[in-house]
Amino acid sequence: MAIGHGGWVIGRILADFLNLMDLTSFKIEHYHGPHKQARAKVKYPLSTHVSGRRVLLVDDVSDSGDTFEIALEHLRTRGAPAIVRTAVIHHKIQSLFMPISMPDFHARFPCPISMPARL
């Protein structure tokens, strides 16, 4: 299950890698126009029930941890999953969301997202 919009690509790649045909998503937003909201909100809710399902919840970055907290709250409104795990590409040190385990390595990205494109 991908958290939009940062988790969409990662969710799709993981679904392909794990040979899973059942991929769904919902969108959580921190911003309303140019202004950051005090708390993230679900903009497009999950359209399926998760009762008894095994759920892998993926996103690109865990910055404040707010997105994962909101996502887990929202997930509970859609039933009681058998198990829930989270995956994130970049877990920032200041994130209040603490995963079950932390990797013992860090990936290096080829270039920062703010780097201008060179033609």
From TrEMBL:
Cited Pfam families: Pribosyltran
Q: Name the enzyme's class.
A: transferase
Query: Per its record, what are the GO molecular function terms?
Result: xanthine phosphoribosyltransferase activity
Which keywords describe this protein according to UniProt? Glycosyltransferase, Transferase
Q: Which residues form the Phosphoribosyltransferase domain?
A: 2-99
* InterPro entries cross-referenced by the UniProt entry: PRTase-like (IPR029057), PRTase_dom (IPR000836)
What EC number(s) would the UniProt record show?
2.4.2.22
Q: What is this protein called?
A: Xanthine-guanine phosphoribosyltransferase
Q: Which organism is it from?
A: endosymbiont of Tevnia jerichonana (vent Tica)
